[in-house]
Fold these 2 entries.
Entry 1:
Amino acid sequence: MKALVSVKRVIDYNVRIQVKPDGSGVVTDGVKHSVNPFDEIAMEEAVRLKEKGKITEIIAVTVGGAKCEETLRTALAFGADRAVHVKVDEEIQSLTAAQALAAVFKKEGTEIFFLGKQAIDDDAAQTGQMVAALLDLPQATFASKVEIDGGKATVTREVDAGLETLEIDLPAIITTDLRLNEPRYLKLPDIMKAKKKPIEVVSLADLGVTAAAALKRVKVATPPKRSKGVMVKTVDELVTALKGKGLI
Amino acid sequence: MSKILVIGQQAEGKLNSGIAKVVSAAKAVGGEIHVVVFAADGSAAAAQAAAIDGVTKVIQIDRAENDHGLAVIVEPQIVALAKTGYSHVFAAGTTFGKDLLPRVAAKLGVQQVSDIMAVHGATSFDRPIYAGNAILTVEAPAEPCIVATIRLASFQAAGDAAAAAPIEKQTLDVSLPTHTRFVKLEAQKSERPELQSANRVVSGGRALASSENFSIIYSLADKLKAGVGASRAAVDSGYVPNDMQVGQTGKIIAPELYFAIGISGAIQHLAGIKDARTIVAINKDPEAPIFEVADYGLVGDLFTLVPELESKV
């Protein structure tokens, strides 16, 4: 069974986000980028299933500009066998990305698709569900446990009310939540090996995808700042202050 | 004029408390507001929806398959309904809404507006990006339809209606998939409040130095009836499991009272707590960035201060 895993290049989670003074976006030049952390969890899950013999081949996919090649190299170092780079130069939004990913999924004849539950840049949390809808396939979002048996997957999901378990027929789309696994640290030999693995570059046109109408980004602003509070000297002072505010 | 369809999320006959907040967001857009309830028997939830101020009609769609509110089951029904002339489809930014609504958007061929935190007009909205470190204003194409989830923390619940809105039972001729089956729902077993909904949260960081030492965090949390969280550094050091992580790569929380103990205040942690009402920080380093955002800061050795705090609250 072939698995597809999507990885997105995002600003590293340790970077302090700076909004451009003209409100056109956030500063990305010269800023450290990494693989979206939730996508690393997706990648790790696919690799573990391959190690267990449930998956035979892992294909990593990304939709983005030239710099996304490094993101795919990271996925290949994790254990993807090969990669597909849907190269786009302009900014694209979730539905267009989903159309491209759905097209790759179909073209590759994959049976299971892992995506992070959201990317930490746009925080939209839409793409996996959109891919599932476009392909009319089952989805299990926010997965914290995945078991594959025959043509089915049993997935535990993190929902507001607790943990929900679904049984879904394959092929299916699964989006990964934090608790699913802890991604491995990449080892140098794997990073070296990844450099030799193949990356196929395709365009939206190659996939027969026309970009969907976009939301117009009017402006990006900095949120109101929290003001610095007071320093207390002792636990007693702290307790008095909290009690005074009715907080404890 | 706008005609807004609000997805009336319910479970076991109870309308989700977030729906009154979604109705507030819909009122900010203005126009007709219809709440649709999908259930095996939605009578109780429909009555609750009809009692929310601003709702002009409730549509009740009873069907056995709707019992567990599965996204793949509800989505085709919403799509069929949305095509009958709605300008907006709104759902709560709950796990239910987040799971469901992008499917609806994809089927209608539109981008979804996720997590609306402010409404400027029928097509213009603010939403947080980068874990709330930036606010994006978007203008959504009005045609064919605007599909959006509402960030519940940003809206007050609409009040009670003077007179209940009419409830209309409908049947939709839509075939539903059988590829997805509900198995079970386990409610959180922990005695402690769930991290994301807790009023108070106590989090520990790398300075705890071991998983054994985390016991003082649990102990203080239990005294305060608080949920327990941790920084990514504490998780990466193996002191606590990943699901306790608070921050951009973990859980984003908004408790009334938050204790950051032995947490330096990395950007990614701060992103997860910026909506906390009151932040208390205890750290031995007076220069720690956490003190820049804390409402109350206390410098000192956490191994002395935390037990003392526990004994005095």
Entry 2:
Amino acid sequence: MKKLLMSGVTALALAAGAASAQAEDIKVGVILGFTGPIESLTPDMAGGAEMALSEASESGKLLGGSTVSSVRADSTCVDAAAATSAAERLITSDKVAAIMGADCSGVTMAVANNVAVSNGVVMISPSATSPALTSIDDKGYFFRTAPSDARQGEVLADIAISRGLKSVAVTYTNNDYGKGLDEAFRAAFEAAGGKVEISAAHEDGKADYSAEVGALAAAGAEALMVFGYVDQGGKGIIEASLDAGAFDTFIGSDGMIGESLIDALGSDLEGFVTSEPSSKTDGMGVFVESANAAGIKGDGPFVAQSYDAAALIVLAMQAAGSADRAAIQANILNVANAPGEKINPGELGKALEILANGGQVDYQGATGVELTDIGETPGVYKEQEVKDGAYETIKFH
Amino acid sequence: MEDILNSIILLANFVIVPGMTYGSQLALGALGVTLIYGILRFSNFAHGETMAFGTMITIMVTWFMQSVGISFGPLPTALLALPFGAAAAVAIVLFSDRVVYKYYREKKSNAVFFLIASIGIMFVMNGIVRFIIGPKEQRFADGERFIIKAREFKQMTGLSEGLTIKMTQGLTVVITIIVVYALFRFLQHSKMGRAMRAYSDNEDLALLSGINPEKVVKITWAIAAVLATIAGVLYGLDKSFKPFTYFQLLLPIFAAAIVGGVGNPIGAILGGFVIAFSEVTVTYAYKKFLKYLAPEGMEPDSLMQLLSTDYKFAVSFIILVVVLLVRPTGILKGRVLE
């Protein structure tokens, strides 16, 4: 009798133990530049990622009822040392299972090289687009849901050629993002028969860009390509060019898209052309609608990619059957690619259930996620033009 | 003939007009630094923040005026608000003098103590400005934006090069001329101005001849703060207001003051233009300019650019180092920095 009672108690204790393991709250790091050059974009990006996390938590199907929540950290976008220590804090003290981020290419490379890879933590960046990230020694721990700028460079060259431009001036923000884009664009544009008359870097955060614009204008190009940031030097360059009457035609990279530019420059900005990572799948429309309902600007730059990055982390956990860091890494590509049931935004609950029952999923998400074996997305871009004070989609590349 | 005109207009549009504007703004800033150095005998590192503070108050008064419908016609409303900003800047520097510098003056401290104290005040004011108006960019320019627009200029003259002169650029140059004229009249002809110059020349002798030193110090602070506010407002109108860029302005302003000869007001003005023009001329690409002038078939193929614009800020430092090595007193004879 006594023995029976003892085993009963043990069973109860075991059950309680199992239950507490189930009620685990898993932490996922969200490291984005909440201060710095892209601070106007990051709140919506973080919101997008957190949408995916709360969707998974609320479904109640993640790892037998676990919840997942975010821990935010500031990458600053530009300060590699600050981003590295913020990521270290996420990994060692907050003990996150994986990281959604970072955002800008330079800090992303620093965090991946210095912290994430050595600690064996998966990092999925929604917005780091430098071609240099393709070849880092990431041991399979770095992924991105935004396409490399090697591709964006080609798209921008296509746009310029299709608009009949033969010679252009290029200005780029002096960092990994700007330089990568400049090189990719130059290669593609010159291969297509165009000529880059001058290519000059600009520093962000200055009040005056008239000297830069003077040099750019002196080269005698037909149009100005601006590879920079909308809240920073990119805007300063366009404004100074308009003031001095140096250029009338501008084509901008994805960092140059933002309402703040239209607000600041008004009708002078009519005809401004941009390229932005996007998707032709139906998922985008669904995502934008539900994001807007949640008060997040769903069609803002990199918001959908952020949602997808966080969703991939959650699905990989479920496929692995645990929130173990290495197990997540092993399953990212499985959930992102075929074979399996296609999963659209808002269907995370369904996906979690399929995975729990031993099935397979092919996560499509908002941006039509498809990862190559080195963890990158080949990328679809949309060409936009400012018309009547709003960005209007022209076509997809 | 038309080619020569085109080349001149091109240079005017991208080099001369921006250089004159930036040079005027630096000159007004450097005048303040040089006055403080000449009379109080230390390098005031808080000068950039004084500019930011005065401009911030001006911006807030401008916003208030705009909200109640006061405007200055084609001129920016900020000019009406400027006296309020200048008054506030005077108040804060006099306050900082009362609570900080006066103590060191009475102790007859070494100039290094003043300098370090001014760095402390710089950080305090830096914080105040960010606390009140925030670290972000602010725009407060209104009224007419252009005096001449590039497109209209082309239509008017039939030339292929356009010339833009912004309202703020014209205003900057005109106001600088007025302010500098008034300052020199004051220094040369008023009793107080003469007292200030005497005090700067020889403190003990000045005291013997009955000059009230505290009054001289106060007037100097007040003039420096007014100059700082004018420079800051003009810079903010022409470019944009952002606390961080005002902090960065400190370096070219000091370079201007030292290059011209620190403690020498004419030197400060000269230094401002030297720094501004060297930044613009060295980094300008002369390809198009020479294309107009070169004979057929001899047009340059390269950009004809001495230094890439990335090195813009290095230029003022190179000049600063060369001047300190070759002529430590500056172009016009100033004091040697201790």
